[in-house]
Structures are given as structure tokens and as C-alpha cells.
Amino acid sequence: MKSRLLLILLLLPLCLGAKAPKKVTAGRSSVVSILTFKDGKLLRSGTGVFTGSDGELLSTYSLFVDCDSAVAIDNRGTMRQIVKVSGADEIYDCIRAYAQPDKKLQALTPATQPSTTAEKLYLVAYGMKKSGTIEETTIEKVDTIAGGNSYYTISLPKREKHTSAPLLNEQGELVALLQSVGTGDTLKSHAISAKFVKNLTIKAANYNSNRFTRIGIKKSLPETEEEALSCLMLQSFSSDSTAYSTMLTEFLAQYPESYQGYLHRAEYNVSKLKEYKEALADWEKALTLADKKEEVWYHKANSLYANKLYADSLAGTAYSIDTAIACIDRAIEIDRQPLFLRLKGNLHYTKRDYATAFDSYASLSSTNLRSAEIFMLAANCKEILGDSDAAILQLDSAIATFGRVPITAMAPYVLNRGLVKYRAGRYREAVLDYNIYENLLSGNVNANFYYMRQQAEYNGKMYRLALADIELALKLEPENILFLLEKSRLCYRVNMIDDALPALEKAVKIAPDSPDAYYLLARCQMAKGNKAAAKQNLEKAQKLGHPGAAETLKSL
Question: What structural domains does the chain harbor?
Fold first, then answer.
């Protein structure tokens, strides 16, 4: 009988009151009741504990899922809004968050060393004033989890209402938080190291993960500048510009000496808000903070280029293409980086200073930015400057970057070389490049390609091939008026009048307002000796505005 009574007494909560160490009883002021809400309605309630005078608190993750707001109420009845979430773990069901701090907030000090088996701990429950119960327990087992943290099994009956209640050592230090493990009440409880929960952070990789998007309370930025910058970069691609603006403000508040934060805000002010003076102030601030000032000059030049401020009437008085060029020149004076030279080339190309642009692109041929694209940009400069031969040589170099084995990726550069040759009057060479292009794409080309190659073949007096290609174009687009007229023109040129007439008759039906269709039809009818019909069609062509119709009518 006595033994049964003793067991019952051991299982009853031991409200130590004055018997508990004073440092433990003082911990009651740090234990809080947490209420979570959704759309103004109470969602859940639970327990948490303050661990920092800045409002840091630890609690249960599942308590916050789907909520859009939450409050923490201490044992004096003071209510504090929970303003942000700074870390969470779904597996161990724990969360680190922050409440709005004040001078009266009291926080527990985390234990510097993990507790050991048989060590005495105290569970401090939430209660108004001094009503929170304190239960003594001992550690039965210590397991090691991620990061070398401790996971405790303690000799205390499990009760759901105590989930996330703190376990303190005799020095009043926070050792662990009680967990909700298993179903129903059991004779054993489990607790996770407070150090594990306190070290939970948000990283760029999980910032937008389901773990945090399920919680409607604002997230903290990561606690390292590098991770926070990565978050800024990711958020900048979002369509939610308001969220990005808020993040920028938070970042600069958290890292006021980060020059990159000011660069990000300058870009936002330029691209989204058109706030040019504010952007200029941020660039100036970044220059005062940055060790690598060339990065600031490059960023400013790139922003001017990317957002075409020099073409914007609102910014025209403050910025110009020359301003952007001056900025990139300052960057190159400090560090002649290939990336800077590439931008310099783009800026001079935009200014139509093609000789200088070519020099910048050509200087990249021996750097890590050497690529087919760079050679093609250089080729464009040379062609505009009237040096088609040099342009073709640049495109030869572009194609050579892919190696000797033909691959699909080189197709655009082969096509571009063919176009340069065509514009230079080297029609037969252009046809050869068009043939290579078709082979690289395994014949998967459209009607416009066949028309383009037909034009080169026609001008190169390769009439048989030209006829074959215009037929291929018409096979793909049989009612294309341009192709019908081109076939007719070619057939007329090689005296295949009987092949031209059906195409022209179809053309005037499809495009009855086309002066070219009536004029070509009339010329073919003249060649067949049908002057009456030719006269009617020439009159129609003249009425529709064909420039040669009147003169041909006179000769008729």
C-alpha cells in the first residue's frame, strides 16, 4: 500500500514553489502563452519561451502553420505581437521567432553545456503571475541529433499542454524544450536541445520553401550578409515588387554598411520607380562603402545601359550614353575585367561608335569571355563599317569556336555568315552557307528559309535551284502572295510563261488589291500576245499605284 502511494506521489506534479531553486522559479517570467490567428479568429494556442531580450522566442512549429498573426502573453499578462519568423524545423516540430521587445521583457539564458544522464532538470509551465507549476525530473537518456545537439528522454509523464515548455537546470539555464512525440499521454517525455532550436536559421535555399510559406508571419532575412544577398537576388526575379522593396529596406537596416544593398536599391529605384535622384544617391553611398569601387562604377553603367535611361526624356537631363561610358571607363581604369570590356563594347555599339565597339569586342578574344556571340558582335560592327570581308572572317572565328564536328548550335552563326555574304553580293557563297544551315538543322526549316535561299539563287543566276526552292516555299504556304509573285517573276525571267500564269491568276484572287500581281499578269499576257487582257490588267495596276504600269501601257 505504501509503495503504491509513493508511486502515485511521484507521478503527481510536484509544485515546488519555494523548494525549487530561485533561479528556476525566476524562469516563470520568460515562459509565455502563444496564440495564433487566421483572419482574426483564434487558430491554436500553445507555449513558448523568451531566449533573448530582443524578443527572440522558441516554440512549436505546428502551432504556427496556416496562421497570419500571433501574440505572446507573459505571466504578467503583457501581450507582445510576434513580428517575424527566423527559423523552423518540421521534423522536430520547433520554431524560432521574434516578438516585439520592450524593457520589461525577461529572457532565459541557454545552457552553455549539454546536460547528462541522471542530471536533475525542472519543467516550468506557463501560468499567470506565479501559478505556473514547476516539476522536477531527471534525464534517463541522451541521444545525439543533427549538428551534435542533444535529444533527451526524461522521467516525466507526457502532457500535450506542456509542449514547448522549458526544461531548466539548477542554475536556471535553459536546457531543452519539451516535445510532443507519440500519441496520448505516456510515462516518458522527450525534449530537444534549446541550442538546436536557437540555432535554426533561414537560408537563401529555403527562404521560399513550403516550410515558411505556410506561415503568414513575415520571415527574417538570413543572418549572414552573403545569404541575405542571395535572398535579395532571388526576390528580385519575383513579380511582387512590394515584397522586394520591403526586403531591401530590411536588408539595409540589418546590413547598413553593405554597399551591395545600395546597389540593389539603386537598380530598383531606376527600373521600377524611375526615381533617378534616389538611385544616384545610392550609387554615391555605395562608392563610399565599397572596397572594390570598380563594381559600383560597373553597376551604374550597366543600370544606365539596361534601363536605357539616356533615352528616357525624364532622365535625359541627368544621364546620357556618355555618362554610362564614363562610368565603365572608370571601372576599367581600376580593373580591366573582361565583363567591363564587354559592357563598354555594348555601350559604344548603342552609341553607333562601331569602331570603338569592335575594339572592345576584339579585345575579348583571348579572355574567358571568348565566344561565338562575341565574334558575331564584332562581325556586326565590321559589316556596318563597310568591311564585309572582315565581318566574314569574324564569323569564321565564331563558327570555329564549336570545333570541327558540325553541331546544331553553330547554325545561327552559319546563317548570319550567309546573310553577310548575300548583302555583299556574294550570292553563290551565300547559297553554300544556307545549304550548311539546312543540313545542321536536319532539314527542319520553314517556308521563309526557302524564299531567302531562292533570293540568293536568283541573284546568283542559279535559276533551276531558285525554282525548286520557291516551289518548296509554296508547298508549305500555298497562298502566300509574296511567294506566288516571286515564282511568277522567276518563271517570266526564264520564259516559262505557262507556269507563271496560273500562279498570277491565283495571286489576283487572293490579293485583288495587289498592283504587282496585275502588272506581272499583264506582262505575261503580253508575252503570249493577249494584248486586250494585258491592257485591262495594266489599267488595274496603274489604278492601284504601280509605278511602271503607265509607261508599259504607252508601249502597248
Answer: 8-198 (2.40.10.120), 478-556 (1.25.40.10)
